[in-house]
UniProtKB/TrEMBL annotation:
<feature type="transmembrane region" description="Helical">
    <location>
        <begin position="168"/>
        <end position="197"/>
    </location>
</feature>
<feature type="transmembrane region" description="Helical">
    <location>
        <begin position="375"/>
        <end position="398"/>
    </location>
</feature>
<dbReference type="GO" id="GO:0005886">
    <property type="term" value="C:plasma membrane"/>
</dbReference>
<keyword id="KW-1003">Cell membrane</keyword>
<dbReference type="InterPro" id="IPR018076">
    <property type="entry name" value="T2SS_GspF_dom"/>
</dbReference>
<keyword id="KW-0812">Transmembrane</keyword>
<feature type="domain" description="Type II secretion system protein GspF">
    <location>
        <begin position="273"/>
        <end position="393"/>
    </location>
</feature>
<keyword id="KW-1133">Transmembrane helix</keyword>
<dbReference type="Pfam" id="PF00482">
    <property type="entry name" value="T2SSF"/>
</dbReference>
<dbReference type="InterPro" id="IPR003004">
    <property type="entry name" value="GspF/PilC"/>
</dbReference>
<feature type="transmembrane region" description="Helical">
    <location>
        <begin position="217"/>
        <end position="237"/>
    </location>
</feature>
<dbReference type="InterPro" id="IPR042094">
    <property type="entry name" value="T2SS_GspF_sf"/>
</dbReference>
<dbReference type="GO" id="GO:0015628">
    <property type="term" value="P:protein secretion by the type II secretion system"/>
</dbReference>
<comment type="similarity">
    <text>Belongs to the GSP F family.</text>
</comment>
<keyword id="KW-0472">Membrane</keyword>
<keyword id="KW-0997">Cell inner membrane</keyword>
<feature type="domain" description="Type II secretion system protein GspF">
    <location>
        <begin position="69"/>
        <end position="191"/>
    </location>
</feature>
Length: 401
């Protein structure tokens, strides 16, 4: 297998070329024996520049970071150097964005940078929480355990978030399909039927006139309505990107009946698990609260955690600082208070995280069990009303003939 490399020789000259080897480890060893200091080494023809550029528009998923963290931890436990780990994982990665980032990280490590500083240059992949955990692991000399902590934490977070998102995909898909079918019938089928009913000198039921009126509105003003919906959606999307809009949307998410309860439990689980993981890595509680506020992914809880961090800085306890907010449940505040007084805060947070993960799973199961029959009833009523509005007048007209 051919590998393209860029290296510096003993005289300081920059060399580029290719080497044939069984794998990248053999290639690196062979080049180092020649007295070369490697800058980059990648398989020849693995990806074209076009593919790499297109890859930068791809998003690195949480699942990819979980797998990467587990691989890094395993390789550190095998006593492999950080430079070789990131070069090896870069070659093995199938994700263009992640591969490019890992190569750059390896270059920074080779230049003398710490792992945390190298990771911090890629905030679109590695969050502030991730970087802070790695930095704490470097300072404590427990980098392998830190990556294991990260892999466990990210795996739990990914599992809970995926379960919550997947629960909402099915009802959203069914509702959107139902709306699309109803609109299609209103603009294609109903107008044809309305021309038949119009020719008959017969008084139509109220519900039939309502359906015909809606159909006529869609036919006459359909394009205007579509433009209005698209424009309104774009305007709403831009508003949500503003600080005020993001806060309003976050507040709406946690106040929607049933779904809001699911989101709240998801955030409680994330906060507890995140704080516990950071405390295990000996990160100060103020720093832990500040970082958690950045990764909680909800503006309301972000403000709560930011205010709590300020309160702890001013000498208040964590429980008292969090207790100033109305969105944190009393049971969570009381358990944190017990943890602070007993010196078992980490254990309490772990228990809370586990409790709310179970609550999220139960809430998802309950929500799905309620949504499915509700959707069936809704679809049945909608289709039945539409058919009754059209067929009853037609049957009446046929009976009169």
């Amino acid at each position: 297998m051919l590998f393209n490399y860029k290296a510096v020789d003993t005289s300081g000259r920059v060399l580029t070329g290719s080497i044939d080897a069984i794998n990248i480890e053999v290639a690196i060893t062979s080049l180092q024996r020649r007295g070369l200091t490697l800058s980059t080494i990648v398989p020849q023809g693995a990806r074209s520049m076009l593919t790499r550029n297109i890859g930068f528009f791809q998003r690195v998923k949480g699942k990819d970071i979980v797998i990467l963290s587990r691989q890094v931890a395993t390789l550190f436990e095998a006593q492999i150097s950080a430079l070789r780990i990131f070069r090896l994982l870069a070659v093995e990665s199938d994700h263009p964005v992640l591969q490019q980032a890992l190569l750059l990280i390896a270059d920074d490590i080779q230049a003398g940078s710490s792992i945390s500083k190298a990771l911090a240059k890629h905030p679109h992949i590695f969050s502030n929480f991730y970087v802070s955990m790695v930095k704490a692991g470097e300072e404590a000399g427990k980098i392998d355990k830190t990556f294991n902590f990260l892999a466990d934490y990210l795996e739990r977070t990914y599992e809970v978030s995926s379960k919550a998102k997947n629960a909402l995909i099915y009802p959203v898909f069914v509702i959107c399909t139902f709306i699309a079918v109803m609109v299609l019938m209103m603009v294609t089928v109903i107008p044809s039927v309305s021309s038949i009913l119009a020719q008959a000198d017969q008084q139509l039921p109220v519900y039939t006139r309502v359906v015909l009126g809606i159909s006529d509105f869609f036919v006459r003003f359909g394009w205007f309505l579509l433009i209005l919906v698209v424009g309104g959606s774009l305007g709403l999307w831009r508003y949500v990107k503003t600080p005020a809009g993001r806060y309003a949307y976050s507040d709406f998410k946690i106040k929607v009946p049933y779904v809001g309860d699911l989101y709240r439990k998801l955030y409680f689980s994330r906060i507890s698990d995140n704080l516990n993981t950071m405390l295990l890595s000996a990160i100060p509680i103020v720093k832990a609260l500040e970082i958690t506020s950045e990764v909680v992914d909800n503006a309301v809880f972000e403000r709560v955690l930011t205010d709590a961090a300020e309160g702890v800085k001013n000498g208040s306890s964590i429980a008292d600082s969090l207790g100033q907010s109305t969105v944190i449940p009393g049971i969570m505040i009381q358990m944190i208070k017990v943890g602070e007084e007993s010196g078992e805060l980490g254990h309490i947070l772990e228990t809370l995280g586990r409790f709310y993960r179970r609550e999220v799973a139960n809430a998802v199961d309950t929500l799905v069990s309620l949504i499915e029959p509700a959707l069936i009833v809704l679809l049945g009523l909608g289709v039945g009303f539409l058919l009754a509005s059209v067929l009853i007048p037609i049957y009446s007209l046929a009976g009169a003939v």
